[in-house]
Every structure is written in C-alpha cells, then in structure tokens.
Design brief:
This protein is an alpha/beta fold. The protein has 3 domains: 7-123, Rossmann fold (3-Layer(aba) Sandwich); 130-272, Rossmann fold; 282-433, Reverse transcriptase/Diguanylate cyclase domain (Alpha-Beta Plaits, 2-Layer Sandwich), CATH 3.30.70.270. It has 14 helices and 15 strands. The strands form 3 sheets. Strands 2-1-3-4-5 form a 5-stranded parallel sheet, with helices on both faces. A 5-stranded parallel sheet has the order 7-6-8-9-10, sandwiched between helices. Helix 7 (199-208) links the parallel strand 8 and strand 9 (217-222). Helix 11 (313-320) crosses helix 12.
Length: 438
C-alpha cells in the first residue's frame, strides 16, 4: 500500500467571483488542494496556523485595504510564497514591502495557473531544503536574452542591467546555442519568432545539452499565442512572458527563476562534492570524463588522466589516527588543485586515491604533471611525515592517455589504475605510464 499523496494547499484570497470561479475550475486537483476566502482576516489566520503552502492574492479594492495582510506577510519573513493576480488592463499593483514570487494574469487560464504554481512550489521546497546551506556563488547573475529586434534587446537588457544582472545577447538561434554553451547563463529569455531556427528548436537543443538542460528557459510570446505557450512548455520551457513585456513582471520572474537555479546548482554541487576534501567526487568524474571523451573524439584532441595514491596510508592512519589521516587528504587536495591548470579537474576517487583529469593534454604533458605533483608532495612538510617509511609522505601515480591507452571512460581509468599498481610494485614514490593495448 502507498501512503497519502501530499498536495500543497493553495490559499486564494480574492473578492472577485470571476477570479474565484476561474481558479476553482481550472486548478489541477491531482496536484493541489484549494482553500478560498474573501476576507483578509481569514487569510491571515490560515497563514498563521500554517495551513497554506502558497498564497494567490488578488489585491482588494481600493488597494490600501490590503495593507494589513502585506504587513503581516512581511513580519513572517517570506515564509509563504505569494502569487499576485493582476489584470492586463490595470496598472501593475504596487506592494514594495511584499516579496512577490510570481504574477498571474487575468483572464486566468489552466496553463498559466499550473505553470505559476509549480514554479513557486518548487522554489519554496528548495529554499526550505537549503535554508542553512551557503549558495553556489557567482559574482552576478547572468541572463542570455535571445531577441532579433535590436530595439527590444536594448529595452529588456536595460531593465535587467538596472538590477545588477549581467546580460548577454543573441540575435538568432544558432548564436544563442553558441553563447549558451560558452557563457553558461543562469536564465535564458527566448523569443519564439527568430530568423532561421525558431525558439522551439533552440529550446529543444538546449534541453538536449547535458550542460544546459537545467538552465531555466522563458519564452517571450505574443499575448494571443496560447498555442505557442503550450508548445513551448512541451519542449521544455519553464515559463513564458507575453509581449509587450511588463518591466516588473520580467524582474519578478527573472529573480524567482535565477533564485531557483542557484538553489538547484547548490544541490547539484553538494551531490557532486566530496565532503572531506571539497573535491569533486567519483559521481562527477563519471559525468565529466564522458563529456571530455566525447569532445576529444569530436575534435581529435588528446585527453589524459592521472590516478594518484598515498603511499603507506594505512601505516599513517595506524600511527597517527584517522583524524590526522583526514588532514593529510585535505592538504593533498589543496596541493593537487594549486599545481594544476584551471581547465584540469581533481577528484577524490575513493579512500586515499585521487584522479586528475587533463583535457587537451597528451601523454608527454601528463607525465610532466605527474612528476611535478610527485615532487611537490615529496617536498611538502606534512604533519608526522617523518614517521612514514623513508621519513616523508609520498604518492605513487599512474598515467593514461586517450587515444594511446583506451578509447572509453572505463578503459582509461583501468589503464591508469594498472599503471599505478606497477608504480607501487616498483618501489612507490614514482609514476608509471599505462601500456598500450595489444
């Protein structure tokens, strides 16, 4: 038997019969539950009791009647995501003290309602999960704006730049794909109508790219383009904006999606890092090695891999304790990172084993790196190093290269591992190169 399905409770506060009917009739009840009130006091009490997971809020008329609710929500400290209902005919309501997660336009339709609710619920769940975690850091959020009209690019880029967001632009689909691959934006604003490749095809290719598939994509569509919106969401877009794009709506949606991307990046970063050393882990190695091998094959470039292992590490742990052993691994991680290039990546493979991935590096170059690392470790003053056999802490290394020693990920790691074994058997504190197959 399966347990009860959790459905977030949507609290709707509106004095409009039309709005209440629209939301109640178009909500997906397989995903959400609904609580309706026309009274601000009832809404505040429901929020105070923790009943609701998201608030859909249509400002009362006149707007100053909503001041009490806004003050209460501000005091709560963003504990409840808010979706603000606005009419396309009205001025965008001003609530400077209220953090608005999303905007819902009238007339309300099922597609937009579902997209907004899923967006804010996902964001709120991530915020709760990572409440005490430092976020993945970037100096400034980066948005790729794909728009063929130079005037529209200038206007929208100006809105975003005024918020301290770094804006990069592209005028067509092919340029957008190149820029996205190179710049790795936090969000992509994508016009549907583009010269050559249209926005749907661009979105499909973005979502097929492993490095870009988690980047939020927002389509910019015409106000009448319901079919465009449906097709956009079906091909992987996260949301849509309608033309002419309202500045405040653009900024609200941009900030929410960038925030979600930051939180997702933090989760991914946690899953891909070794907690002891801070290096990437074996899981991330599998992903990176496959990607670098594909690139090496596509462009006929070399790729090398070094496997390093601490000599007599069990003796070190038995003599000095496991906490001292942990410190050795942390110091080794720092030495490896500081003595390799920015394009190289160091991984903790397991136990006292490390792997260094060297893109665009042939066997001779990898040997140079391996010997450099060996010497750096040999000369480094590790705690209790004098208690080790030979009076110092050392490493052994195995070096393998594509395509010399293997043509796939498993073969390359196995070749480096066998080379490391031979280095150990030959006396340790040295490197050995893999043997070509055949």
């Amino acid at each position: 038997m399966t347990g009860p399905v959790f459905r977030p409770l949507v609290l709707l506060l509106s004095g409009s019969r039309e709005t209440i009917t629209a939301v109640a009739s178009q909500l997906d009840y397989e995903l959400f539950n609904l609580l309706i009130t026309t009274l601000e006091e009832e809404a505040i009490e429901a929020i105070r009791r923790g009943w609701s997971d998201v608030l859909i809020f249509e400002p009362l008329s006149p707007p100053h009647q909503s001041i009490c609710l806004c003050s209460f929500l501000q005091e709560q400290g963003d504990t409840l995501p808010v979706i603000l209902i606005t009419s396309s005919q009205d001025l965008f309501p001003e609530f400077p003290r209220l953090r608005v997660y999303e905007v819902l336009h009238k007339p309300i339709n099922r597609l937009e309602l579902s997209a907004r609710l899923k967006s804010v619920i996902t964001l709120r769940q991530l915020e709760k999960q990572l409440a005490d975690q430092p976020l993945a850091h970037r100096e400034a959020a980066r948005v790729l704006l794909v728009e063929d009209s130079s005037l529209q690019r200038k206007i929208l880029a100006g809105y975003l730049a005024g918020e301290g967001i770094e804006v990069i632009t592209a005028a067509d689909g092919e340029e957008a794909l190149r820029v996205a691959e190179h710049k790795r934006p936090d969000l992509i604003l994508l016009d549907v109508i583009l010269p050559g490749m249209n926005g749907f095809e661009v979105c499909r290719l973005l979502k097929e790219n492993p490095a870009l598939k988690d980047t939020p994509v927002v389509f910019i569509t015409s106000r009448q383009g319901r079919e465009e919106r449906i097709r956009g969401l079906e091909c992987g877009a996260d949301d849509f904006l309608t033309k002419p794009v309202d500045k405040r709506e653009l900024l609200i949606r941009t900030h929410s999606l960038i925030r979600r991307k930051q939180l997702m990046d933090t989760l991914v970063n946690q899953a891909s890092r070794d907690p002891l050393t801070g290096l990437y882990n074996r899981r991330q190695l599998a992903l990176d090695l496959q990607r670098e091998l594909s690139r090496a094959k596509r462009y006929s470039t070399p790729l090398s891999l070094i496997m390093a292992d601490v000599d007599f590490f069990k003796h070190y742990n038995d003599t000095n304790g496991h906490l001292a052993g942990d410190e050795i691994l942390r110091q080794l991680a720092g030495l490896f990172v500081s003595n390799t290039r920015d394009v190289d990546t160091v991984y903790r493979y397991g136990g006292e084993e490390f792997i260094i991935l060297l893109p665009q590096t042939d066997l001779a170059g990898a040997i140079t790196v391996a010997e450099k690392l060996r010497q750096k470790v040999e000369k480094h003053s590790f705690p209790h190093g004098e208690k080790q056999p030979g009076g110092r802490l050392t490493i052994s290394l195995g070096v393998a290269a594509y395509p010399d020693h293997a043509r796939d990920a498993e073969g390359l790691i196995l070749a480096a591992d066998r080379a490391l074994y031979r280095a150990k058997q030959s006396g340790k504190n040295r490197y050995a190169t893999a043997i070509p197959p055949g």
